[in-house]
Design goal:
Layout lengths: L2 H15 L2 E4 L15 E3 L2 E3 L6 E4 L21 H10 L3
Antiparallel strand pairs: 1-4, 2-3
Length: 90
């Protein structure tokens, strides 16, 4: 595997790890994931105490193809993109 391909594969993995789950009413003592199981009540995802949970994620398509290169790297600066994702709270 060539060095650029390894770097791009690692970048893709890092972006995939940026996925997160947050509670709408955040409690820093609980961490990012609420304790226990998640379930649904109507159209809401709730924690085991009945509080609404917001699930937010970041994805960058293309890293799962034969060359493991996220789509658009020829058009965007990946460092700026990662910075923008971080600025958005991920």
């Amino acid at each position: 595997m060539s060095v650029p391909r390894v770097v791009l594969s690692l970048l893709w993995c890092c972006l995939a790890l940026l996925m997160t789950v947050q509670e709408v009413v955040a409690d820093p003592a609980d961490g990012l994931l609420p304790p226990g199981y998640l379930s649904t009540s109507g159209s809401q995802i709730i924690d085991n105490r009945g509080r609404p949970v917001r699930i937010a994620a970041v994805g960058w398509p293309g890293g799962d193809d034969d060359i493991f290169v996220p789509i658009g790297l020829n058009a965007v600066n990946y460092k700026k993109t990662i910075s923008d994702i971080k600025t958005l709270g991920f």
